[in-house]
Amino acid sequence: MQRITLPNSSVSLSRLIYGAWRLADDSDTSIKNVRAKIDAVLAEGITTIDHADIYGNHECEKLFGLALAENKSLRDQMEIVTKCDICMNTDKFPERNVGFYDTSPEYIEKSVTESLRLLQTDVVDTLLLHRPDPFMDAEKTGRALDVLIDSGKVKTIGVSNFKPEDWRWLQKNMHHKLVLNQIEMNVLAKEPFRNGDVSALQNDDIKIMAWSPLAGGEIFGNSAAAQRVMPLLSRVAEAQNTRVDLVAIAWLLAHPANIMPVAGTNNISRINGLSEALNIKIDRHTWFEIWTASDGHPVP
Ligand SMILES: NC(=O)c1ccc[n+]([C@@H]2O[C@H](COP(=O)([O-])OP(=O)(O)OC[C@H]3O[C@@H](n4cnc5c(N)ncnc54)[C@H](OP(=O)(O)O)[C@@H]3O)[C@@H](O)[C@H]2O)c1
Question: NADP-dependent oxidoreductase domain location, by residue (predicted)?
């Protein structure tokens, strides 16, 4: 498995990442099954697990932490990414009458402390601000994030769903380097390739993680774009004797920006083999065939 070293840090992540968002949606949320998924992921050489405080209505970190607690050697075999700042209006927080974002130092500190407790670990490898907060006080937020690294609770800090001006404003208020931005990218969600985000991230030496690399399963759906793209993915899969989901992931891996896809399947038979995506060859011509099918019109 290829590894990506995060800028200005000793942390390295696996090129392919496993996302824990859907962990609590599985019909089997037993610790045994969570552990089986962890084992399957690690067997693929995928050592980086992506969490967020809110995943599964705040259940996913807990489920994962219970599996880690059962075998103390597991934690050292992986890097844990988690996120904070989305405050959902759910039954868990009856006092909230609206969803909002909170990047205040008090909230960030509280959220990370709770993530550490639930995950049953003493350090988070990478903490991400989950979404840009329109009410952010960058000076206070930046300082709070720096303090988290200085105190040893978190090794590195990044962002998610941030636009260039959002991450540059935050970075200007921090000593430590923002290491990555996790954004939506897949064969059906290509905007970051053309709106300048992918270039800006490379220019600022911020690594790129792609969430929902299969468009959350929509590539298998009935949308017109999915129906145009799927025959091409199938053609490549057949020619290279592999799976269509892996071809969709390989389309992201083929890009020179060293994108790190975050796969989200709950199905162990689909976790098995994920690392084969790194061996699939997608040349420029094929990459643009898929691009064009997704757009539904030729490049201008
Ligand atoms: N930062 C953010 O704002 C943000 C937002 C969303 C997600 N994320 C991260 O990204 C990760 C991945 O997101 P995602 O789960 O949407 O990823 P994804 O890999 O694009 O989609 C996974 C979904 O596709 C389905 N699927 C996979 N292979 C399939 C197949 N061959 N046929 C039919 N369905 C198939 C899966 O169902 P099965 O489980 O049945 O395989 C699952 O429901 C999340 O876990 C989370 O860590 C981050």
Answer: 15-287
